[in-house]
Amino acid sequence: MKKKLWTACLAAVLVLTLGGCSAETAGQHPEGVVDTEPDKGLEVMGNHVTYDPNHLVNDGQPVTLEWWLWDAPDLFGQMAEAYMEIHPNVTINIINNPWDGFWTKLPLALQKGEKGPTLFNVHNSYQHLLLPYMAPYDIDLDQMQEDFFTAASHVIDGQIYYTDFGVMTGAIYYNKEMWAAAGLTQEDIPKTWDEFREVAKKLTIVEDGKMVQAGFNYNGDFQNLMLGVPYQYGGTIFKEDMQTVSFTGEGMIKTAKMLKDMYRVDGIGSEDFGTDAAQSFGQGQSAMVYKWGHFYGYMNTNYPDIEYGAFEIPTVTENPFAYDRYNGEATPGINKNASPAQMEAAQDFIRFYLANTRIQKELCMYYSLFPASNALRDDPEMLENPAIAAVSEHIEDYIWPGPMPSTLEDNMKIAAQDIMYNDKEIEKTLKTAEDIVNVDLANIDFTSAENLYYKYGQEG
Amino acid sequence: MKRKIMGAALFLVLLMMGVVTVVPFVWMVLSSFKTNAEISALEQTLLPKAFTLENYATLQSNFNFLRYFGNSVFIALVVTALVIYISCICGFVLSKYQFKGKNLIFGFIMMTMMIPWSVTIISRYTMFVDAGLQDSYLSLILPAMVSGFGIFMMKQDIGALPDELLEAARMDGANEFAIFHKIVLPMSKNSISAIAIFQFLWVWEDYLWPYLMIDSEEKQLLAVGLTTFNGRYSTDYGGLFAATTISIIPVLIIYIIFQKRFVAGVAAGAVKG
Amino acid sequence: MFWKRRPLQSKSEVVLRNIVVAFLVLHMGIFLIVPVIMAFAGSFHLWNPLNGTYKWIGLDNYVRMFQYPTFWTAMINTLVFCVVVVAFRVLLGLSLAYAITSKMTTKKTFFRTVFYMPTVTPLVAVAYVWKIMYNPQFGLIDQILGVDINWLYDSAFALPAVMAMTIWKDFGYAVILFMSGLMSVPSDYYEAAHIDGANAWKTFCYITLPLLKPTMIFVVITSVISYLQAYVPVMVMTDGGPGTATFLSSYLVYDQAFVKYNFGYASAIAFFILVLTAILTVISFTVTGEKPEKRRKRA
Fold this sequence. Notes:
Radius of gyration of chain B: 23 Å
Strand order of the largest sheet of chain C: 1-2
CATH superfamily of chain C: MetI-like
Number of helices of chain B: 14
Oligomer: heterotrimer
Number of domains of chain C: 1
CATH superfamily of chain B: MetI-like
Number of strands of chain B: 0
CATH topology of chain C: MetI-like fold
Order of helices and strands of chain B: HHHHHHHHHHHHHH
Number of strands of chain C: 2
CATH class of chain C: Mainly Alpha
CATH class of chain B: Mainly Alpha
């Protein structure tokens, strides 16, 4: 009996394996063909960083690149297809990997040198893992900075290894139906935190001592507010040495107190009401949340029926030092150990990527990013996206602290939860977090980019 | 009469425990037919309000589901079979033979279970790459075929077999290999079933090691594919539940095949005793 | 007394022994000892194999570990977690296995399968289901119990909530093993007890339980070992929060190794846990009255 079962199992495996085999080969690109025509009859693309398609890559001989991603294979695939159409001798194979474990697998794969991927998407928080394997872009620095407003912050020893194609930051999202029900209009969009708290009170509904609608829900976002709002006070996260953090500045402590007061004094929300702000907003239980741009995509997939708008983060004063922190989505890195043929093709492809605003626009729209390319800045179609529109007015006044090691956000999160849920004293908790982060940072070679911000040193 | 009431009461208690046990499980399966909005909606219902097969339909388009599934079944069966055989033979030698260094070896086997994988996985990775075994199934099978759990279990179980039985066979002139295959192996059915059930599940669920070792799409395993539903900013729970529901089926089949062995084991046990 | 040293009798015994020993030594040498030695050496270094950092820092990692307050929180949490979850696993596993194998129970196969269901379901999926069940606004648990508790965000309830989920997920494992053990108890033992006039409880205490000892040892030891390495439930459900209320030692190792890429520091913590596990294992063997190296003989 047992034998029969095993035989049946094995037969099933064989069938599946063979079936899989025949289905598989279809997905792979065939090797490229020899290209003999340098003149493609195409126009030169781009403003300062330009791409002239009318040349041969690798003398027209076939070359294959692997490009590793963790998301959106269709979108990046389109870009690869467009490039392969111009240069039929170049084959770009897209390998989409799960996000979990990607940052372990990628550096290990790059250790294999030429056998590793030639191109790979980068996230700046993993810069410290990837930089030893990356080749600098073969593109003029000044031209890059003319075209991309964040490029300057990615200069490392006079070279650029990757830059942003778009940036993301926080904004306040509000439920339009609740807004109207509370008798609020467009005029009531708050500019300052004081105004914001008043609006939030109007949006809060408590029945029989039980909250049924929160005016503002920051559950899960406390730490993000803590790493953004203090800039409004003129403080920075990093001390002057740009290597150690200060969590105990005036801005941090005031921000923490304000957030805590919102729940405890104003009663516009509760740490026990809607434990996940995004979900609670989607379920129509919270009127306002503070979220980063990816929230637009989240709402589209999960709660397409909620009508909402977004406005810029309120500030402490008019003209703050900075409104909030931003973070970039990066262009691909190039494997420095790639073969000369691959290197030539990869560098050529990067130039194509950077000069191609159409594809950058699609990427920014997909992720709800404010475009890093100056050419796309006033694109009306992009401004229809509330997440992009809300941050567009003062985008120059957002600051990037650099490729922050994860210990910062992790320990701020622990501190935030200790303050929110465990009722620990604000100053002491933040001091503890600061100490732990500084011990961790002492072991990491990291320098903040805060001092590259144009207002750095002018105020605060 | 009293017996009947007792029996009914016992049945009721078991039933209640059973309900508690399956509710989250059933919830998950039914949720795989819901849209994402409904899964995290404010009003939770067990049955989907708007029945959708969307989550299942997108499985194959997300990654080559059938292919990954087949690969996983293959690897899980091979590793489970190897682990069973190796555990039995090691358990036999370690429990029935006396020799120097036996305890040391057993101590190290226990240690294999105590070392967190997170600290050894990178060194192991480097070793496999240096040996040129990357992207081959050998890299998945080799390290998994010795299971501390399995050897420990078989050592306990085979150790409990009466020595007289083995001695009698030896008297009859059987060599050790024959004794192992003809007497020890058939008498360890219960433990073998348990190992099969657990080991299959562990191989089936293992994620990081296959992800690191296997590069080509056509060799990748299902557990790796499943994590594609866990994105950077959000998780596609509908997709995750649908994929999970299907991925449980082989594990359940293995379970159902081997749980019958328990029953057979009772009969054998009665004769044995 | 069969466990007295018996001289090797046949050539085939020597051959078989040599094959097995050679295989085990080779396999463990390559896949266990070498990586462990590498990790042990790494624990004295600032070590990130992903970008090639490897710098000698002596005992710094260990010093840092003992000074880190979260480390001690995690150790205490781990201990509580282990003791409670293992206790429930054994109690639930044993009583349910006993109930199912009882002659009075019908539909044995059905129950067996039902109780095993959670064990085969991948953790990530069920953890999310439980997360929804724990929600204070619309979760099933608060509704059924008629309370208003924010389970996963209240430091008094977060760890118990994670433990409850783990118990639910894992007790089926113990049911299976105990059933396997119970079924090996020869039925004439029970008949003999019955004839002697022993009641059910006495039969259980004096016959079943002693015969289940190997199974019990097995369940306890494998559970302790696996729970000392558990981090997934915490990662999925609470991320160690609120604050550090649900940090477990292995979550710390995982976090340092695969989130912060501090492999040296992670190794230092792992070796501390290893020593602790070894001690706990020896204690488990001692408490259950059996030395691992001693041969058991059949009653």
